[in-house]
Predict the structure.
Amino acid sequence: MKPLKPYIGTALLLMIAASGCNNDLTEKIYSEVTEDTYNYSNAYQAMSIGYATMRGLISHTHWYMAQESTADGIVMPANASGWDDGGIYKRMHLHTWNSENPQISSMWNTFYSGVINANRLIDQLSNNKITIPAGVTQEALISEMRTVRAFFYWMICDNFGEAPLITDRSEELPEKTGRKEIYQFIVKELTESIPNLSEERNTLLYARFNKWAAKTLLANVYLNAGIYAGDTKWEECLTQCNDVIASGKYQLETSLSAPFVTENQNSAEIVFAIPFEENLAGGFSAHMFSWHASLKNKVNMLATPWGAGSAKGVPQFINTYDADDQRLKATWMTGPQFAADGVTPLKGSYDQAGKNVVLTNELPDGLYTGEAQGYRMNKFEVKTQAQGSLGNDFPVFRYAQVLMMKAECLLRTGKASDAATVVSQVRARAFATKPAKATVTGADLQKGSSYQYGYVENYKVVDPGNAAAVQYGRMLDELGWEFAWEGFRRRDMIRFGVYTTKSWLSHKPTGAFRAVFPIPQIAINSNPKLKQNPDYN
């Protein structure tokens, strides 16, 4: 059984009396519950809203696909079944999004909902509005909510750069704060909070920030400090990673699929996850926007995927995999597709009606593709009789990433051989049948990327794009192979200097300012103190 999912509700009982004779519509309030009169008897229930807000991040029009479809591994083109939707997905691939793209307003709204909820909970905990359970201190719970708030501010800092920094419940309209200042706030909040967090890893703390999850968050912040604040923090990131490793609380799974199965809450590899449950806590629907409709019969789904599917692999990225790398098939659905009996071919119904569905690694461009073109999501298990929402918990941080952050820091600080040892450790399970291929050297990691960057027309790379070698490009490749479909790629590409400088598929560079998203226009319209991010009209 999965741990209880976070929910919170506040009762407000109103009874309205209306007289049929005099049409008196005055409300008669028999019971009223307000913040001043209500005291939470269950602190964990009260705090759960801070975590429940995170579930909104994982959708095709939100943070999740904004990180993947704007990068070079996944694209969301239109096809005969639809998926143009006014160009909202196309613009993400082309880097021509504007301040009214729904993905951008969805991120902004959820990030700040998380901040506002955390601010309220910190205030309520500090002012004894929430009963503290036995065995835990008020300071520990406040620190946990400060960590949740830091998580959302990390998202804001990473995606929007300059933005309002709100730490209280003031009703005044906020101004923007500089990106470096937001970064410094996040570091301060985490370094002050971490000592008060539990070191335990148990059911009560699952999908909550314990000390090790918070240290992994801080490591991620330090890993990207050069982008956020102009000052690299490789040694500081390395320290946090080493602390998590030394805790002995986590380990690599021997199976590539273990962190991504439906009942993955017991995975020894997951450091921090967003919990989902198909009926009570839905919203994770990667199969619905990636799978072809006929794939319903592959596992006798109770829901039908949306058309021919949209999210699929960029062939230039797929072509970087070693043929013996088991992550290729563990991550991507490829080739002929069959019904649950394993024998009956699944049939197309749009531009190839009646033909067998054979998923191919070919796309004419990133704007419009055939219904069976492009490899699809295979990383997260879609169980037999799956519904529209999956019950797999989404691993925000897993132990493999802690190891790979450590490796990158070692590589960037001149310890390439030590970095290679760590990367080889992560690669080992992906080359179980060819163990010699699991080993990489420090010299390997210092090579450029194997990605053939360039603009594609009619299936061919016709523009070599920026031909300059990517520094530590092989390390970027390693990150791509390990973390595809996990929301890492945009951030990694920015750190390695390729997100706004390289071409891939139909994408061409449109300017360095695209390394952050614009503030949603609706937010600017409602707050005259907000100014749009530079170079966005």
